[in-house]
Amino acid sequence: MRPYGRKLSPCFVLLAAGTLLAVATGALPAADLPPSSLEVFSGTRWVTWWDSSRAPTAWMAADAAVATAVAWRPAAAGMEWGELALGGTGGAWRLQVVLVRLDPARLRLELVSASREAETLPDWSLDRLPPDAVLGVNAGQFTGGRTWGWLVRGERVEQPPGTGPLSTAFTVRCDGRVRLAPVEEIPADGPGSAVEAFQSYPVLLRRDGEIPPQLATAGSGVDLAHRDARLAIGELRDGRLLIALTRFDAVGTALGSLPFGPTVPETAAVLGALGCRQAVMLDGGVSAQLAVRDSDGVLRTWRGWRKVPLALVAYPR
Description:
Radius of gyration: 18 Å
Structural class: mainly beta
Number of helices: 2
Helix content: under 10%
Strand content: 35-45%
Oligomer: single chain
């Protein structure tokens, strides 16, 4: 994803055999959203749980049909990883959503900045993940081979904040707590209380599951129809973090990294349905990559095609 103007959208409602499956409020103007829908595999059949013509303005709770369809497995350092089978429209016809659920209190989170040739070429991939790391994922957005927006590493500000109402800051405090801070709360200079921090966009969910109106209104500088592989990070209502990576799943895992997938409104729906109260997109497409070490010490990887300038890496405390 590149700075504003390419990918954004709203959220959803869920119907399965006429039963409302999630708590949502309001409804977005259907005319502003391209026609699309999302299905989840219930174990015996595909069930439609979101439709663009009935998209809500907020997610107040997880959707039972979606949340219970995840096959969770234990991972290292108290983490869990899982997979979710979804079906949708066009390039999202069949999707695998790879999920990692983690407690930041049990992990040490660190940002790794990696560029070469005068910081013009990004140089991080999963191949650079240290052997003692239990999680690695590309972080933030980038432009021109450089990380976009506010960047703090080791309590040192390496880049000033970027501008944009749909951006937010992922911050790790000295006590280990993690927070998604709205753009207006990013310090103008200095790291504030952040030990590690990066800025990203667009916000998918804010406050308590609210969908930003810019993701629902055509002509707001956001492409509501663009489809791509997606990567996002969100905060669950119990304080844990959720990382979600979509993979194309129509022709097997070999072509999973193809840049086909959901729109941003559909991605926001997925994060909301899984119980996030806040969420933000990370760079997706061919940049999206994720690794998690399972409970047996095996590193499971979902690779991208492109190196990136910034990664979020986790170690056991």
